[in-house]
Here is the input.
Amino acid sequence: MCHKGVDIMIRIYTAPSCASCRKVKAWLKEHSIPFIEKNIFSTLLRESELKELLERSENGTDDIISKRSKIIKENKIDIDAMTTNDLIKFIQENPSILKRPIIIDERRFQVGYNAEEIRVFIPKELRKLAECDQIDGCPQFKDKDYLSFKEAYQNDQKNQTEV
Here is the structure.
């Protein structure tokens, strides 16, 4: 589901038992933001995807790999000593070492669920629309989809201030 003039594609890397993953998916659905879900255990993670995740993470492997994971600790694996290709192969064979959820689009990258930070995934055009105070004075809100987005955004804002 795309809004007029807004073409984004968010990918989220998830695991079935992950509560934060469920929160991210619920938040995106609530805000009518389209996404592709990739279950790390049932989907083969392609080399190009893993390279992109590694390149986009600001702190290298620390951002996306759980160094406290059982596989790494028990086998005394030194992730930092691996070549990129070896690391990619290791992740493909042991996807449970990935932190989750990982949320990524063309410009943004986030690991884990954070109620404040996830707002960056609302397209800029829609964030601007949501800031318009007078629905009647905003021609953009004549479209029903935008109206529901504005209501969802305002409810979300209200809920944030109540917490």
Notes: The CA atoms of residues 112 and 133 lie 32 Å apart. The mean pLDDT is 81.
